[in-house]
Specification:
Length: about 300
């Protein structure tokens, strides 16, 4: 019945080309009713290509009624596209802030919107940082903001502005406790950016784990030590401390040793980590030695 109504409205009000677009949209929506992403893409295409308010309303209604997609997500996508086309790029920031303050969507939606705005719409980085700060204050509170600001400042000073997106995405994914998304984000970042960002990812993940498990004060101390002493040494110490505090299994220790060997590539640091792991965590020395030898042979030849 909904399909018939949409076709009748299009035939009466519009020309042949918009009718074809809407019919294709309805067919795709009905056939792929479980794929929310297809629905969002279709809505965006209709809004951008056809650009007719009545048709947009009809498509949104069909999407929400037939497919039962989250109305908030559809509205956010439509509003962002309409604002970009009608009012200009800079107003998207205002829309994002309003959506976050009023609707309070999930972290993943906020990150997706911010990244899309930066990459596609080319909003200045300063504005994006302000938006992220506002989002964090509204959704998470001031306490978490301190951690985010400290991490962003350290990353910008040491690695540049481009890595801030990586840090924000990884922090959001890790805080949401979805390990599968962490792997996807890391793989996408390494493939798309084309740089070995394993050090940055390790630092961010360790910082977030320390925040979640041990508190904000530990992060502040770690950041001070990073600036004053050495970043790699702090990463090693924090990882070992987390392993000791959490009483991790042997595989966790093996992974730590592998990460240290691959990232640092310094025999002296590897020896220190092996000694600490064997003495403090009481792991069997043979296991650690075998892992270190295999990694060194693979990496160094």
């Amino acid at each position: 019945m909904v399909v018939v109504v949409v076709v009748v409205v299009v035939v009466v009000v519009h020309t042949l080309i918009p009718m074809v677009v809407v019919v294709v949209v309805v067919v795709v929506v009905v056939v792929r009713r479980r794929t929310a992403l297809v629905v969002v893409v279709v809505v965006v295409v209709v809004v951008v290509v056809v650009w007719d308010l009545l048709m947009v309303v009809v498509v949104v209604v069909v999407v929400v009624v037939v497919v039962k997609v989250n109305l908030i997500l559809v509205v956010v996508v439509v509003v962002v596209v309409v604002v970009v086309v009608a009012l200009g790029r800079s107003m998207v920031v205002v829309v994002v802030v309003v959506v976050v303050v009023v609707v309070k969507p999930c972290f993943c939606m906020v990150v997706v919107v911010v990244v899309v705005v930066v990459v596609v719409v080319s909003i200045p980085w300063v504005v994006v940082v302000v938006v992220v700060v506002v989002v964090v204050v509204v959704v998470c509170g001031v306490g978490f903001l301190v951690v985010v600001v400290v991490v962003v400042v350290v990353v910008v000073v040491r690695y540049g502005k481009a890595v801030v997106v990586v840090v924000v995405v990884v922090v959001v994914v890790v805080v949401s406790m979805k390990s599968g998304l962490v792997v996807v984000v890391v793989v996408v970042v390494v493939v798309v950016v084309g740089k070995v960002l394993s050090m940055v990812v390790v630092v961010v993940v360790v910082v977030v784990v320390v925040v979640v498990r041990l508190g904000v004060l530990v992060v502040v101390v770690v950041v001070v030590v990073v600036v004053v002493v050495s970043l790699r040494l702090v990463v090693v110490v924090v990882v070992v401390v987390v392993v000791v505090v959490r009483n991790g299994a042997r595989m966790v220790v093996v992974v730590v040793v592998v990460v240290v060997v691959v990232v640092a590539l310094k025999i002296r640091m590897v020896v220190v980590v092996v000694v600490v792991v064997v003495v403090v965590v009481s792991v069997e020395p043979t296991v650690v030695v075998v892992v270190v030898v295999v990694v060194v042979v693979v990496v160094l030849g």
